[in-house]
């Protein structure tokens, strides 16, 4: 986008909107889609794309993100929308809007691939997360925020010694610093550096980051959730349990079109000679802001009898409990009828 040709906030709005509309049209035509066909794939009114391309309607962030996903523009449409939205705010305010006032630390990142793996050895849950990041913005990325949380009714709080967090970028160890330290929630900035050596993710570059940590069984719980907070092209989740515990595993999805519905993806289930059972899900192009929750129960383990006796009564109660606004990824406190094991909520990875 050529900023030199724009001289006022008003002309900047026009230029950035034109740039978005032009890119949308080009991507749609290259994909061989009519305006109505694209609108259907995006779950919009059939005439909506036509209104956007003609300039009769202003694009919204939701529209830009969905178009970016459906047309596979690698974050380009979303980036153009952000430029348009910024210029629109400047026009309304009559002055430039400071970038820091409304910038998301991750707003220029696209997750091209996320691979989440969790293994339970009977005592601890070991989580390993791999993300292939693409910087579609105009500035180097030097930090990546993550959060590990458990409910405040866990048997024991999270500790740094327990978690034993390790991270790397393309195999290069990453330093990290604490963003928030609470008994049941740890927030961390992963840094694209180690010691004096820095390796920012520059505009246009891609990199794999990987981090792992451990959470004790008494702190983790019996479900794990992935919340899609960045544009993501592919998500996979791999869960491994000791076979002798007789695990039962299932998934649910909450999104703009589904609320706690069964996960559409069918898991691949395998059993290894070393006594482990694995469930593997793949979700191509997960919806932004969707939440994918994987649940499990052990039929042969501590508390199994109590869970079996109370399962029918407990499930409706769990689904109807309101969620606390400050812990968006966790339901509220469990019923007193639940066993101590079933009350535990899982750590949640951001």
Structural features, described:
The protein has 350 residues and is of the alpha+beta class. The chain folds into two domains: 3-98, 434 Repressor (Amino-terminal Domain), CATH 1.10.260; 109-349, tricorn interacting facor f3 domain (Immunoglobulin-like), CATH 2.60.40. Helix content is 28%, strand content 32%. It has ten helices and 18 strands. The protein has helices at residues 9-30, 35-41, 48-54, 61-71, 76-93, 99-102, 160-163, 217-220, 304-320, 340-343, and strands spanning 109-120, 124-135, 143-149, 166-169, 172-173, 176-182, 185-191, 193-194, 197-198, 206-216, 223-227, 234-242, 247-254, 261-262, 268-271, 276-284, 291-298, 348-349. The strands form four sheets. An eight-stranded mixed sheet has the order 5-4-10-2-1-12-16-15. A four-stranded antiparallel sheet has the order 6-7-3-18, with no helix packed on it. Strands 11-17-13-14 form a four-stranded antiparallel sheet, with no helix packed on it. Strand 1 (109-120) and strand 2 form a beta hairpin. Helix 1 (9-30) packs antiparallel against helix 5 and helix 4 runs antiparallel to helix 5.
